[in-house]
Specification:
Blueprint (H helix, E strand, L loop, with lengths): L3 H22 L16 H32 L8 H4 L5 H9 L3 H14 L2 E2 L5 E2 L4 H9 L4 H14 L5 H34 L4 H10 L2 E6 L5 E6 L2 H27 L3 H4 L1 H9 L37 H18 L5 H4 L5 E3 L1 H6 L3 E4 L2 E6 H11 L24 H11 L14 E5 L15 E5 H10 L2 E5 L2 E5 L11 E2 L4 H18 L15
Antiparallel strand pairs: 1-2, 3-4, 5-6, 6-7, 8-9, 10-11, 11-12
Helix pairs in contact: 1-2, 2-5, 4-5, 5-7, 7-8, 10-12, 10-13
């Protein structure tokens, strides 16, 4: 190419600048030690980093141009195909081998190179780059390769629907702002430009985002409840606002605790900015919670009363805010009917609750919690205890009411743990209390001995396939119909892990006191009726 020497000369000039910056960064007393970055001055290290970045951008420009040319020479479909001559299916695969990088990075080099390089018409006429303003900014090093790829994909995406002049104006704006606002700021600007250039595409894009929404909740081996979600703008906006508002209020309180209540009025603007950035861990003023790596900022306890200082990270404050919102939703009179009908149930021994020792279990959560945590809940959330101790009166409703009460469901969950079907892992929140002897057909009572917790799927299996259920010694047994098991061998239903562990340990202690060993009954064989 005719201008290659000029491009290489630019590269050589940047390398000379890097060499000068590197040498100048070394402190005078350390120059004899070597050129390690550890002996650079602070300002020198920054200058060396900036010089490296300029050189890297220039290298990437040349890489993109070479990648585009390689791609063009590898699409001939004949023996002149450069990639195939070197044993690769595509130019991108050749580039991956040469750079040791990812295929996506190679494809990006090709795309940017083709969008910012000059073209030739079918008649051989030299044409400007497809995106000339982007090409100028990219080749000068003003726009990084990441920002250039964002801009290139946006321009290609809306080109067929946007006015040509408007598209050119958008390109100019983006290449001007990208060096100032960075990649993330460029992405935000692109979203707004796309809405203006392609107004008819706003709703389809919104529908696409909404269809991709998701939230996964699971408990890991350590006992932590994990959430991983993605929300479309309309669904995510109230979640974001609620958490930011609660965390912002905590940041305000933390600042006031350090600087005194009199600073509230004068620092309001800064605190509002801190609240807006709360969920990202970015503090907007010196009196707010400072951000550390990964947004793990914490309040500066070195000023004022350290006892009153906020010591939670931003991520911890976000988690606490979400938990507070959930507690409020469960206790609100304005909550949806389904939420008003449920409550968080913690099960704890009455003596342990009084003494503060031992542990408790939470319905739907596998990991035990301390009794102290349950006592804190009782004080802060106004929890009313439901005593289900040995020998206490069982709740019976007979035929006076069809649906099982919350107290009855709590007793059944304590026995079954969740869905009682053998091997089913559905938690209590995914189950309903059902009559073993049907309410209408068998005139079964709404009593505990006639109740069982089942998920919707296994409830239908019991009803549709003809399974029978029996409760013996406070445990469920499922008796299959004849066609899958002619002998109709009963299968032991699920038992709540807390109930199983408590009863097994208690049996072991009783056996040791009696001088004998405890045995575990087989799960597949039913005890005598």
């Amino acid at each position: 190419m005719n201008d290659s020497p000029r491009a290489l000369q630019s590269l050589e000039g940047l390398y000379a600048n890097l060499t000068e910056a590197w040498s100048g960064a070394l402190m005078a007393e350390s120059r004899e030690v070597g050129s390690d970055v550890r002996v650079m001055s602070d300002d020198g290290l920054v200058r060396a980093t900036e010089a490296l970045a300029r050189l890297q951008r220039s290298v990437q420009v040349l890489q993109a141009r070479c990648a585009a040319e390689l791609a063009g020479r590898s699409r001939t479909g004949d023996e002149s195909d450069v990639a195939k001559k070197h044993g690769f299916a595509t130019a991108e695969r050749l580039i991956v081998q040469a750079t040791g990088g990812r295929y996506a990075d190679a494809a990006r080099l090709v795309s940017i190179g083709e969008a910012t390089s000059g073209r030739r018409s079918f008649t051989g006429e030299v044409l400007p780059a497809r995106h000339p303003h982007l090409a100028t900014a990219f080749e000068s090093g003003a726009v990084s390769i990441d920002a250039a790829d964002l801009i290139r994909r946006f321009l290609d995406r809306v080109a067929i629907r946007a006015d040509r002049d408007d598209l050119g104006d958008a390109e100019v704006l983006l290449v001007e702002r990208a060096p100032v606002v960075g990649v993330e700021g460029t992405q935000r600007l692109i979203r707004q430009l796309e809405a203006h250039l392609d107004p008819d595409g706003v709703k389809p894009r919104e529908d696409e985002l909404r269809s991709a929404r998701s939230l996964k909740i699971w408990q890991d081996a350590a006992g932590m409840i994990n959430l991983r979600g993605a929300f479309d703008p309309a669904s995510g906006a109230p979640i974001k606002l609620a958490i930011e508002t609660l965390v912002g209020a905590e940041l305000h309180a933390a600042r006031d605790a350090r600087s005194g209540f009199g600073a509230k009025a004068s620092g309001a603007a800064g605190s509002d900015a801190a609240a807006a950035d709360a969920t990202t861990g970015q503090a907007a003023d010196a009196g707010s919670v400072g951000a550390g790596p990964d947004g793990a900022g914490s309040a500066d306890a070195s000023r004022g009363d350290g006892v009153l200082a906020e010591d939670r990270s931003i991520a911890q404050m976000n988690a606490d805010a979400l938990a507070d919102i959930a507690w409020l939703s469960l206790s609100s009179a304005d909550a949806p009917p389904a939420l008003r009908a449920v409550t968080v149930i913690a099960r704890v021994d009455g003596d342990d609750l009084a003494s503060g020792t031992g542990h408790a279990t939470i319905d739907g959560v596998e990991h035990p919690v301390s009794t102290e945590t349950v006592r804190e809940w009782a004080m802060s959330a106004g929890i009313s205890p439901l005593y289900l101790a040995e020998g206490s009166e069982r709740v019976q409703l007979g035929r006076s009411r069809r649906l099982f009460s919350s107290a009855q469901k709590a007793v059944l969950v304590a026995r079954d743990g969740g869905c009682a079907w053998p091997g089913c892992q559905r938690p209590p929140s995914h189950t309903q209390a059902h009559h073993i002897r049907w309410w209408k057909r068998d005139e079964g009572p709404t009593d505990l001995e006639n109740g069982i917790m089942l998920c919707a799927h296994h409830h239908h299996r019991v009803h549709d396939d003809g399974w029978k259920i029996e409760i013996r010694d406070d445990r469920s047994w499922f008796i299959p119909p004849v066609h899958p098991d002619p002998h109709q061998v009963p299968r032991a239903g699920n038992t709540a892990p807390e109930h199983l562990a408590r009863e097994h340990l208690a049996a072991g202690r009783r056996a040791r006191r009696a001088g004998r060993r405890v045995s575990i009954p087989a799960a597949s064989a039913a005890p005598a009726a």
